Amino acid sequence: AQSVTQLDSQVPVFEEAPVELRCNYSSSVSVYLFWYVQYPNQGLQLLLKYLSGSTLVKGINGFEAEFNKSQTSFHLRKPSVHISDTAEYFCAVFYYNTDKLIFGTGTRLQVFP
Amino acid sequence: NAGVTQTPKFQVLKTGQSMTLQCAQDMNHNSMYWYRQDPGMGLRLIYYSASEGTTDKGEVPNGYNVSRLNKREFSLRLESAAPSQTSVYFCASSVRTEGSPLHFGNGTRLTVT
Asked: Is the CB of residue B74 less than 8 Å away from at least one CB of chain A?
């Protein structure tokens, strides 16, 4: 079955530290990959996407992600986080062969001063 | 731009009552979606409409109905609410279903007692 796994449900980190939020998906078939961010009491906003081309994708707010086809991963990184990055982050994968978009269960990033 | 607008923001229902959640988008998108978000489960697709005049079931359609009233509006109806339908409901839209990024509304928080 197609699935998206975000292994870390919560990631606590101090301000200005680097962070990596992990995302793995179940199949090596052709995919589109997305990261969304959800601030409290809001809907999800697109952070970045991978459709094709360079495997390193840069998004808004200084975030970037790297597509690794062999490891079926799309981890999100930021070299130095701010308090304002505190939010929930969702990885989503669109599978060409089934025309389905699958969301991970989310990772709550908590940035402490 | 308003983007995706959902009403109401909050609602409390008694078991067995009915209600309709409204959603409208002003981005001229073809595809619209209804998701529910529950703690630890990510987002699950209830119904979607690939284009005006079509609707299809998603992962968790039981207990819900939808209407794509026109290109802008996509409503979700609960005919007989149950406590298991307590959730946060998000409407989203995209240019098309094949891997386009989703634009989300701010959600409707529904409690069924």
From this structure: no
The residue written with tokens 């991963």 in the block is: A73
User: How far apart are the C-alpha atoms of A1 and A24, rounded to whole Å?
Assistant: 14
Q: pLDDT (tens digit, 0 to 9) for every residue of chain B, 113 residues total? A: 679 999 999 999 999 999 999 999 999 999 999 999 998 888 999 999 998 989 999 999 999 999 998 999 999 999 999 999 999 999 999 998 777 889 999 999 999 99
> Are the beta carbons of A44 and B101 separated by less than 8 Å?
no
Closest-CA distance of chain A to residue B8, Å: 14
Buried b (16+ CB within 10 A) or exposed e, B73-87: bbbbebeebeeebbb
Q: To the nearest whole angstrom, how far is the Cα of A13 from the nearest Cα of chain B?
A: 20
